[in-house]
Structures are given as C-alpha cells and as structure tokens.
C-alpha cells in the first residue's frame, strides 16, 4: 500500500510539474516586414513620418501576429493582425498603420550594394 501511494504521489508530482512547465512556455507569432516603403507616403496613427535621412526604408512591426487577414477594397490592401488588432493599409496614397505602439515599430535602412 505504501508503494502504491508513493508511486501515485510521484506521478501526480511529475504531472503537476509538466503542467507548470507548459504554462510557462509562450509562443510568439510573426513580425511584419514592410520593405521599400517611401517615407513621404508613410503615416503612423494618421501622422506623417518625417525627418529620416533616407527616402526609402524597411519597417518592421514587432507585433507577434498569430493571424494575418488580407483583403482588398477600393484599390487598397488592408492587412489586419491578430491578436494585436493592428491594421496596415497600403494604397495609392501610401502606407499607413494603426494600433501599433511606438516601441513595436522598427525602422531599418536597406543595405546598399557596392
């Protein structure tokens, strides 16, 4: 009887440890890369981005998107990211995105080939 109780407690302890280990693991999603964006056409939360030393940049949105929905309406491409609820709109008037915190936006300058 003591051996069965010890085995049951050991199995229960290992199962509990496994649950805690699994709960501590988080999976991240995808970051969004917008390559070759012209500065004059880029707006963030409705405000134009200015004052950068280059006219063309790559924008990385560090939003860990788990789901990306793409649709086209009236000549514009809408990209909705979940679970962050960020939205990227690419159209004839430029590129804009909303629902992104400033610390989630990274500007990269394209490498120049020599």
Main features:
114 residues, alpha+beta, 6-stranded mixed beta sheet, 3-stranded antiparallel beta sheet, 1 helix, globular
Describe this structure as you would to a colleague.
- Helices cover 20% and strands 46% of the residues.
- With 114 residues, the protein is α+β, with helices and mostly antiparallel strands.
- It has a domain at 30-108.
- The protein is globular and about 35 Å long.
- The model is unreliable at 8-26 (pLDDT under 50).
Largest sheet: 6 strands, mixed
Q: Note the overall shape.
A: globular
Helix and strand composition category: alpha+beta
Low-confidence stretches: 8-26
Based on CA atoms alone, the radius of gyration comes out at: 23 Å
Order of helices and strands: HEEEEEEEEE
Which whole number gives the mean pLDDT?
75
Produce a short descriptive summary:
This protein has 114 residues and is α+β, with helices and mostly antiparallel strands. It is built from 1 helix and 9 strands.
